[in-house]
């Protein structure tokens, strides 16, 4: 166990925040002394032994919380709107009998998940995103004096704004508050009812999230952060430390721990990370079998199984014989994910672009790009097909067609595009409504259902997953249509495949989580009382 | 003589090596005892050679070595990359070792291209640039310059014509060079009020009450739109462009009223004035028609917002975000020559951004002509720096006065301070 968690925390020893987490007094460890704060920067390893069952159970409970947070975001909640729900998730899943027990569960589960989610860039990104949102919400739950104490303990001492500075910036501070819709705050500032101490002056580098969304006043390189935004100040160092630690952990895990623990912990750890992201298309083995798709298959597959974003890009490419760089990345990597081999990809792009980039021009300007996508040029990185989140996050400029059509299309063009795709009319309306409400992935799932006339249980979180689900559904249909006897019929009727091999306890439990959609499992955690 | 043939002469007689070195060494020229002598050597240069061959990870010991390489290899383009933790030429030796090979410093850069404004330009498309669309670039320069200085507190900033259809901005303060990728993204987003097109209209991060930075930008852009963009582009004389503008109005009633008022008007500026009048009348009527003062004000603001939308949709800087987000993104060096146009990437003084003439930019051909027509006596008088007698001297002077001189002064002061601190430290040698 020792080595194991040490790998989880190995980054901690090097980063500044680790030094920050020194216990304040000497006699605290016994547990009888002054209560520690119910939030941690996870700078120190948990001590003592952990039973293997606990190890897994704690991690699963934390995963339920993180998955819940991810679901909220998919539903369109912004971080500032999730506070109550996240707190509720936390209390439901991460409770324990005593304060010490709860703190231990928090720290242990965090370190186990570091191990489980350190191994690829996608896993790390997912974990960091959810953990930061969780951390922010938990920090906000602290009462102000605890917030201050936490910042002091983490050596993040931010100075309140001085009177003169405040007077000088007052009007602009009010304007910033108004621009965020906080009119009451804005008016209170203007009426002089707000104390200068309600703002902190910090270098802008420390609050990139507030800078990026213009939720803070900037003057000469200083950001004027309000008391309510203090969570941004602590989330930043938390994110940086976690990000660094995960990279180091990944190295240690692969080199030392995984081989040593091959029989005992490795299977648990690996199964922990297999869920919650949908299929992992960054792993070449999880993609379509290379060679299963050829350039000639694409037009048919477009009609049958491509999600709308890819259909519209194929359409643009086919009509204009050109896609801009971002489009070529999004579409090209998607095709790679289907199992289109490099030679076929080159053939496909060359044919489609021939009218504007014949022969040598294609070789000169675009061949590099296609080969690059397959990791054959430049950094030789095997680029991962884009996820829905990434696609939704991109902003196509003039003349660009990438991005998520449920977000970028007008209602009329969306309706027309879905009808052309032969989506059932009722589902077209459903999709248009969901898109208009900002639920782009749900809209996409509706379209999928309208096209395949069956329910889409897994939701859509990746264009390649859309495609795979579609192929599965279509093949299942063919199987039963043909009325094939024997093996084929049995295959079609079989329940959804479970991961190959015997399902260990972890997998079963994970499926519990997935199936129950975060509902409280029987024998779950005790009700938690809140700490002040 | 094609552009490529002239490049050899350009690099040997016109290119300002000394200034480039002085900039990129940031005082680390080995002369000062407190300077970091290996600093310049760790900077990546990327040459584009004849036939679009990219040669990355070039590095040079000093100005002399850089000048020699330029003369010998005659790149059609020079890109500047980050400063790495080790000499990029020897990166192979460090890859996989404990410290790895990674960028540690890089100017904060911005790239704005007129291509991204094609939907609001009437004078041309894609690679086209002229005095009629230049105001769009000038406005972008003004907004960036103000934001970077006032909001972020940067001082060492210069703008440069990118050679064909846009502008690059380099922010060189030490603090800017040390920004992480995340912080770079944040700054780019801070400036990204224009977020692409959606459903036929621009997506803009504007609200009824704007952030002070957006308010400052809007005030500047409104003037630029009315006084420069509209008269030059004659947007409202173009039916398609007029439709696009009307799409920002909140109601069909307003659209009809504006169309009515436009009858017989044959000038864009007058049409705009008519539109503003109609919208303002409507806003006033709504405010007075509302019994509650707060709601009335809100209704007025909501109606007036469409004016803001129109101005910002047409003039707000459209940044190429990807360039700014990553420390290791390459960007073309100033004083390069564009291989197609032959134009030199000359610095632009933000104070005179409106007056800059993209069509009158010195080309490598015009500079060489000036050089040739000089009497041998005049050339001799200039010694090595023959370019001083050509238009290159204006370009280099702009670079110095807007940027390099104050940078050098600050760097010097910084080194002196370091030396003072070091001297003041007690030593054990007593």
TrEMBL record, chain A:
Required cofactor(s): [4Fe-4S] cluster
Binding residue positions for [4Fe-4S] cluster: 309, 388, 404, 444
Gene3D superfamilies: 1.20.930.80
UniProt-listed InterPro entries: DNA_primase_C, DNA_primase_lsu_euk, DNA_primase_lsu_euk/arc
Pfam families per the UniProt record, alphabetical: DNA_primase_lrg (PF04104), DNA_primase_lrg_N (PF26466)
DNA primase large subunit C-terminal domain mapped to chain residues: 301-467
Compositionally biased residues, Low complexity: 486-506
Record region (Disordered): 473-532
A GO term, aspect molecular function: 4 iron, 4 sulfur cluster binding
Cofactor note: Binds 1 [4Fe-4S] cluster.
GO biological process: DNA replication initiation; DNA replication, synthesis of primer
UniProt KW keywords: 4Fe-4S, DNA replication, DNA-binding, Iron, Iron-sulfur, Metal-binding, Primosome
Gene Ontology CC: alpha DNA polymerase:primase complex
UniProt-listed CDD domains: PriL_PriS_Eukaryotic
UniProt family annotation: Belongs to the eukaryotic-type primase large subunit family.
Purpose: DNA primase is the polymerase that synthesizes small RNA primers for the Okazaki fragments made during discontinuous DNA replication.
Protein name as it appears in the record: DNA primase large subunit
From TrEMBL, chain B:
One Pfam family named in its UniProt record: DNA_primase_S
Keywords annotated in UniProt: DNA replication, DNA-directed RNA polymerase, Metal-binding, Nucleotidyltransferase, Primosome, Transcription, Transferase, Zinc
Keyword Nucleotidyltransferase part of the UniProt annotation: yes
InterPro entries linked to this entry: DNA_primase_S, DNA_primase_ssu_euk/arc
A GO biological process held by the record: DNA replication, synthesis of primer
The enzyme's E.C. designation: 2.7.7.-
Record carries keyword Cell inner membrane: no
One annotated GO molecular function: DNA-directed RNA polymerase activity
PANTHER family linked: DNA PRIMASE SMALL SUBUNIT
Protein name: DNA primase
Gene Ontology cellular component list: alpha DNA polymerase:primase complex
Protein family membership: Belongs to the eukaryotic-type primase small subunit family.
């Amino acid at each position: 166990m020792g080595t194991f968690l040490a790998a989880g925390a190995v980054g901690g020893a090097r980063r500044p925040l680790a030094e920050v987490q020194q216990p304040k007094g000497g006699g605290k460890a016994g547990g009888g002394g002054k209560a520690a704060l119910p939030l941690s920067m996870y700078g120190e390893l948990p001590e003592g032994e952990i039973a293997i069952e606990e190890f897994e159970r704690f991690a699963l409970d934390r995963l339920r919380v993180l998955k819940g947070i991810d679901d909220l975001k998919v539903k369109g909640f912004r971080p500032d709107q999730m506070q109550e729900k996240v707190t509720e998730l936390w209390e439901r899943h991460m409770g324990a009998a005593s304060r010490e027990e709860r703190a231990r569960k928090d720290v242990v589960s965090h370190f186990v998940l570091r191990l489980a989610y350190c191994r690829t860039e996608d896993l790390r990104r997912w974990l960091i995103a959810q953990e930061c949102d969780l951390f922010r919400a938990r920090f906000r739950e602290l009462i102000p004096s605890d917030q201050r104490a936490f910042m002091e303990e983490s050596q993040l001492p931010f100075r309140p704004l001085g009177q003169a500075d405040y007077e000088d910036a007052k009007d602009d501070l009010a304007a910033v508050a108004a621009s965020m819709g906080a009119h009451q705050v804005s008016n209170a500032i203007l009426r002089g009812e707000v104390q200068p101490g309600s703002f902190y002056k910090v270098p802008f580098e420390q609050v990139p999230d507030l800078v990026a969304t213009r939720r803070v006043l900037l003057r000469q390189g200083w950001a004027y952060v309000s008391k309510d935004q203090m969570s941004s100040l602590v989330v930043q160092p938390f994110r940086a430390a976690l990000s660094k630690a995960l990279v180091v952990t990944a190295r240690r895990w692969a080199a030392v721990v995984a081989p040593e623990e091959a029989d005992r912990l490795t299977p648990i750890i690996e199964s922990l990370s297999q869920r919650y992201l949908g299929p992992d298309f960054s792993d070449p083995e999880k993609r379509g079998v290379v060679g299963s798709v050829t350039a000639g298959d694409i037009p048919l597959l477009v009609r049958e199984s491509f999600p709308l974003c890819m259909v519209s890009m194929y359409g643009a490419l086919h009509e204009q014989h050109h896609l801009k760089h971002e489009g070529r990345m999004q579409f090209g990597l998607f095709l790679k994910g289907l199992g289109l081999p490099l030679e076929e990809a080159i053939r496909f792009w060359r044919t489609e672009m021939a009218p504007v980039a014949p022969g040598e021009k294609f070789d000169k300007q675009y061949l590099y790009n296609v080969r690059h996508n397959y990791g054959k040029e430049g950094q030789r990185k095997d680029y991962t097909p884009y996820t829905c989140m990434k696609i939704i996050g991109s902003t196509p400029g003039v003349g660009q067609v990438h991005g998520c059509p449920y977000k970028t299309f007008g209602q009329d063009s969306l309706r027309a595009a879905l009808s052309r795709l032969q989506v059932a009319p009722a589902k077209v309306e459903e999709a248009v409504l969901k898109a208009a409400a900002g639920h782009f992935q749900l809209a996409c799932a509706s379209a999928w259902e309208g096209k395949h006339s069956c329910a889409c249980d897994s939701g859509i979180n990746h264009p390649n997953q859309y495609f795979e689900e579609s192929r599965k559904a279509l093949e299942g249909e063919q199987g039963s249509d043909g009325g094939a006897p024997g093996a084929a019929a049995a295959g079609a009727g079989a329940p959804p495949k479970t991961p190959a091999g015997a399902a260990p306890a972890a997998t079963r439990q994970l499926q519990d989580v997935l199936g129950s959609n975060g509902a409280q499992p029987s024998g779950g955690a005790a009700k938690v009382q809140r700490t002040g | 003589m094609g552009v490529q043939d002239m490049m050899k002469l350009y690099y040997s007689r016109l290119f300002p090596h000394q200034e480039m070195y002085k900039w990129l060494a940031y005082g680390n020229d080995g002369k000062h005892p407190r300077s970091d002598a290996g600093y310049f050597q760790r900077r990546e240069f990327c040459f584009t050679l004849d036939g679009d061959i990219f040669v990355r990870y070039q590095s040079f010991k000093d100005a002399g070595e850089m000048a020699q390489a330029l003369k010998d290899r005659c790149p059609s383009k020079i890109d500047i990359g980050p400063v790495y933790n080790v000499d990029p030429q020897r990166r192979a030796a460090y890859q996989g070792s404990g410290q790895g090979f990674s960028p540690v410093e890089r100017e904060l850069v911005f790239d704005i291209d007129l291509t991204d404004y094609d939907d609001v330009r009437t004078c041309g498309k894609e690679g086209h640039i002229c005095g009629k669309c230049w105001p769009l670039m000038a406005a972008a320069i003004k907004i960036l310059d103000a934001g970077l200085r006032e909001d972020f507190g940067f001082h060492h900033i210069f703008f440069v014509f990118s050679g064909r259809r846009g502008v690059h901005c380099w922010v060189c303060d030490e603090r800017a060079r040390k920004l992480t990728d995340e912080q770079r993204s944040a700054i780019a987003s801070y400036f990204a009020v224009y977020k692409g097109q959606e459903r036929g209209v621009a997506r803009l991060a504007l609200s009824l009450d704007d952030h002070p930075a957006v308010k400052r930008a809007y005030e500047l852009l409104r003037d630029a739109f009315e006084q420069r963009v509209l008269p030059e582009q004659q947007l409202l004389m173009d039916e398609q462009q007029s439709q696009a503008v009307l799409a920002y109005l909140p109601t069909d009633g307003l659209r009809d009223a504006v169309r009515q008022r436009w009858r017989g008007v044959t000038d864009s500026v007058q049409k705009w004035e008519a539109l503003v009048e109609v919208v303002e009348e409507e806003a006033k009527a709504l405010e007075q028609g509302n019994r509650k003062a707060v709601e009335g004000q809100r209704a007025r603001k909501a109606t007036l917002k469409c004016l803001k939308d129109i101005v910002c949709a047409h003039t707000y800087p459209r940044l190429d975000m990807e360039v700014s987000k990553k420390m290791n993104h390459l960007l073309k060096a100033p004083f390069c020559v564009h291989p197609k146009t032959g134009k030199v990437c000359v610095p632009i003084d933000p104070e005179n951004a409106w007056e800059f003439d993209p069509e009158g930019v010195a080309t490598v051909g015009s500079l060489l002509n000036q050089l040739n027509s000089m009497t041998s006596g005049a050339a001799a008088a200039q010694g090595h720096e023959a370019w001083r007698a050509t238009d290159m001297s204006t370009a280099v002077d702009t670079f110095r006065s807007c940027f390099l001189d104050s940078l050098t002064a600050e760097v010097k002061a910084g080194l002196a301070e370091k030396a003072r601190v070091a001297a003041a430290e007690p030593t054990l040698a007593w």
